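Team,

Forwarding the record for the chain on the shared tracking sheet. I've put the sequence and predicted structure together so nobody has to dig through attachments.
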Amino acid sequence: MNIETKRRTARNLSIFVTCIIAIPWLGWWLDVQRGADPHAQNGSLGWLFFILTPLAAVLLLRAFAGDGWKDFGLNPGFKNNGKWYLFAFLFHPLTMVVILFTGYLLGFIIIPDGSTARLALLGQALLAGLLPGFIKNIFEEFAWRGYLTPKIQTIIKNPLAGHTLVGIIWLTWHLPYYLVLMSPETLQKATGLNMGAFLLLGLAGIIPTAIVYGELRLWTNSVWPPVLIHTCANVFFDTLILLKVFNYSSASAEIFFAPGLYGVLVIIINLAAGLWLYRRRTRISQDER
């Protein structure tokens, strides 16, 4: 990459990060000024800006600011990437099952109803959530792994440092969602932790997740495996929470055994998987030289 291209990439990354951090807060402020309920998604500028800004910024920068479309990752590449699509589909569901089963055996997880009817309802809810979740994650992943990951990797030579930066930016974008857009009642359904502990664990969890998703993007040169793995994570965890499939025996149990991306055991598994993907990719790249 020549100096001019690197400068343009750094400039556009600065524009992208500024937009995705500031504009959702602007939308929330406008909602407050006009007396709209910031927690209601219908008619909320905060929610609209939060959801649309990342992808809108990407499309504008690629179309009009010189970023182009070469590294967009739109080609699914099914022929060469079948095992990575399978990995993307199974990784989070299997991790969540292992965490819940382990926590249940150790007495940290309580499953109040394991009947066949309850399992059938869970299966129906999971299937119903896949398509909406997939569409929602197109808006996210075309920004984070479709744009941010490949661009940062071109100016930061250490891939793990690049993934870490993506994770920090990704969490920063989530802040208005957790702090002002999501209602306190909704957040209480998802976690019993206070906001400080939740965000601290969220930061610890989102970085290994960014490594896994980013490495899938770099492995496959496609944004679709990250879309799929992100969808499976959201759908499985959200459905488990919505249907109250499990409870924690204590607050400390949630810290360690939460099947979402912020539980300590999940963080360890995601970090191990991300480092494995990174080491395998770099080793093969070196062998091919």
